[in-house]
Amino acid sequence: MLRRNSEKRRSSLTPKQLRILTYVRDFSKARGYAPTMQELADEFGVSKVTVFEHIAALQRKGFLKRSRHKARSLRLSGDYEFPDERPTRLPLVGTIAAGRPIEAVEDRQALDLEELFVSPHETFVLRVRGDSMIDDNICDGDYVVVERRNTARNGETVVALLDDGEATLKRLYRDADGIRLQPANPNYAPIRVQNVQVQGVVVGVIRKV
Q: Taking the model in full, what pTM does it have?
């Protein structure tokens, strides 16, 4: 619930308000005191009047506190979770070759795992047990990110619920004989059924090494 409330609060910020809030945080951490209104105006290239309007809006929304008639009284309020502080946001520092060597380049970017799997559908994660999908590079102990859907196209990897109540991870194919749930390992035979309940479609694989 706290997480959901934090996301809801974050969505109420405009891009400029988020930039100002982040700057107040970073400035205060670096110097031990808050920026003045003039320093904010200089940083963002706007007038002090505009800064006052943004600060007032952030106060109304509960993100900032400020004492009147004190130049450096701005302080963050509550337990707001900044987007760049989420544990799912990891630094993306460059590119590395898996084939021929390339020059290492450091970029100041980030890879947000939440944004990476953004979908119009609900998503969930399952831990894989077994090696029937190993040739698709889905190994025992991996985590698969699944879109909750009840339909799938031929060839998509699905979470399929069988008539006996067991769920399995396989590629789904429809042919003249019904439905084929195809493993990605020659040591396993396909599962052939007439009907299957698709629980979701795999959209990503996460592996901790």
A: 0.54
